[in-house]
Amino acid sequence: MTNSADLDRLRWSWSAEAVAWLRAGLRGVDEALEQSDLAHVMVLGDSQVGKTTLLLRLLGVTDPEIAAEAAVPLRAGRGRGRSATPMPIRYQWSGSPDHWSLAYDDPCDASGANRGTAWLTSEQLEERLRSFRTGATGDQLRWESHARPLEIGLPGRFAGTEPRTDLRIFDLPGLHSAGTEEQEAAKSLLAVYAPVVDHVVFVLPADQFAEMVRDPAITENPFLLGWGEQAHRFSMVFTRAFSGDSVRRHLHAALGEPGSPGWSRDLIVAAVQEHFADQLLVSELPSVAPNALFPIEIGESWQELLDSSPYYAEAVAPVCDELLRRLSDTVARYSDPDRRHLAAPEIAARVEIVVQHKARRRKQALNTAAQARRRAKHAHKEALTFVDRARAAAKTARQRTKALRKSLKRLGEWPIAYARPAAPEMKGNLVRAKQEEERAAWTEAARRAWTDWRETLQEPGVPRQPPHDLNTRIRKKYDKLCNCCELCDERWLKRLFRESDPPDHCYKKMAGVGTLMPTWIRKTLCTHAGSATTRLAQNEADAEQQCAVASRYADQTAEALARADIELDDLLERVAAEQAEDAANLTVARSVRAIHSQRNETYVQHLLDRAAHSDGDERSWLVLAALRGIHDLNRMFP
Q: Which residue from 537, 222, 477, 499 is spatially nearest to 355, judged by alpha carbons?
């Protein structure tokens, strides 16, 4: 026989079946279907901006002194100015007037199925929370990002007189704590919990809000990136909101002096919300509806404001209370125990978030791949230009070397236009003078040959002038070829009448120089000009080496370009496949209403069919369950 407990257990079975069907039809968007069974609201902010204090106030701890007392064990011995929250925590009421409750997973149970609850004093809770930190400064965490959050229940004696709401809300570690390890842990936890919550409460210092919302941990998370476009998913709490001079000036300009008729609660609320909405725009951040902004003073900042400006603080106190009440109402809506099921219509929106994020990543990847290909193509183009220049330089070097060698060959055959002086009288100093004339004539002939030959070529590497010591070298060569005995100056007559060699013999020796001197001159000039050959040969070798280097570089850039082409083609194929998958996912996700309605109808019809064959209390329970199923569907899709 069916009873109410059985029907209550199966109450949401039709919704679970619908989600299961959707899960089977969706690909690559699992995070869009994940829902936490612990909480649906997350408080997010930097360290030391008042997150925990805000949570205590939302829970109903309204007395400042009691809130300070409650904060002591939660800080786990951490001093002021240091991050206190070491892990994700869900706060609630313990149900005991004097003891804290601490729900945690059994460390020996990897499945997390066994979750124990301990009842602790404030000192014991502080000690337990302190155990999650290690190191001399306590900045190292003993917490695994995959572990389920702690659940901390406050003693009932902390409650105020106003009604309390059993909130289902996470408090995460601050993004910008002092230790690097804690910062990384906070970002890792944020990546885990951002997809599974329905509402995010940003807690921001009023004077530094822009820096936080631009943090990569937020801007790179698809479920947090659209905070300016999805106002229903986000609330923004500005702490120390009324302490700033800009707020005071704005309120004075808009409402007049404190205490004047314009300083009513509702007018102040509207004015301060509009002010911070304008500040978002001034900071070039997305516009947010003013009613999603909650500027408040709470905790130590409230006490400081009260001590420094009591009249002003009393004027804005009702405003803070009203904004906190509105925020509490917002959080309460998302803390409904049935929220896990009632959030089903948001599956399509979540899928769209994931699809848009994937589309942004694909676009970025395509841009990166396209840029890489453009760089590879440009590098290959430059490499080919380098090859062309190197080949042209090598060709020019070869041509210069070839032209010089050809010209040297002509120089080796160049005529030496030697104009020999007239025959001398072969006696005395006249012979010496005539030999000097011949030396000068040979030098002049050599210089003229060099000049005439040099004018026939354009090679800049060849010296413009003949050897600088050409005259000395020709004189020395002439004397060697002539082999003059130099006896005619002193013993001319004796040699003339008594020696066997007459003066004609000496003249023949002078004339004989002409048979060997041209060859020697050409050889000397070729040697002088040939010094450029070595340089040109080295230039040619260098140019050939540059060609080899350029060719290897061109081959490497060609391979890089080929890889870039392949990677871009592969990416385009993947993009096309993912786009088709995304389109299919959107089609499936947008059928959420139809699928849930169909499953609900089947569920209700099944209950009514059973009721038709039942009687008594069972029939009543089945009919009531059917009516509740219809009611639940209407709540899900109002």
A: 222
**Which residue bears the tokens 């939660």?**
74
Alpha helix (H) residue ranges in 335-466 = 339-342, 346-411, 429-454
Q: Measure the CA–CA gap between 254 and 82, rounded to whole angstroms.
A: 38
Strands laid side by side in the 41-45 sheet: 115-120, 100-105, 150-154, 89-93, 169-171, 41-45, 199-205, 234-239, 293-295
SS3 assignment, position 213: helix
Here the tokens at position 72 are 């002591």
List C-alpha distances in Å: 40 to 224, 311, 339.
14, 39, 7
What does the alpha-carbon distance between residue 174 and residue 82 come to, in Å, rounded to a whole number? 10
- Residue 38 and residue 151: Cα distance in Å, rounded? 9
Q: Residue 341 pLDDT > 70, yes or no?
A: yes
Residue carrying structure tokens 């997150």: 51
| Tokens encoding 327 | 């925020």
DSSP category for residue 174: P
* Structure tokens that stand for 433 in this block: 């003078």
Tell me the whole-structure pTM to 2 decimals. 0.68
Each residue of 481-520: pLDDT tens digit? 887 766 655 555 555 554 555 666 677 778 888 889 999 9
**596 Cβ neighbours under 8 A, 6+ residues apart:** 14, 15, 18, 344, 633, 636, 637
Alpha carbon separation from 477 to 106, 183, 446, 524, 578 (Å, rounded): 111, 92, 13, 11, 91
Beta-strand relationship, 150-154 and 89-93: parallel
Residue 60 contacts residue 382 (beta carbons within 8 Å): no
List, as one string, the DSSP characters of 417-449. Answer: ---PPPPPP-STHHHHHHHHHHHHHHHHHHHHH
Residue 314 CA: distances (Å) to CA of 208, 238, 305, 317, 417 = 25, 19, 10, 5, 120
- Kindly tell me the sign of the dihedral angle through the C-alpha atoms of 73, 75, 78, 80: negative
Helix ranges restricted to H, 203-244: 209-213, 216-219, 222-225
Q: Each residue of 1-48: pLDDT tens digit?
A: 567 788 888 899 999 999 899 888 988 888 777 777 777 888 888 877
With beta carbons less than 8 A apart as the criterion, state whether 50 and 299 touch: yes
Q: Residue 265: which of 278, 251, 277 has the closest Cα? A: 251
Structure tokens at 547: 């060609």
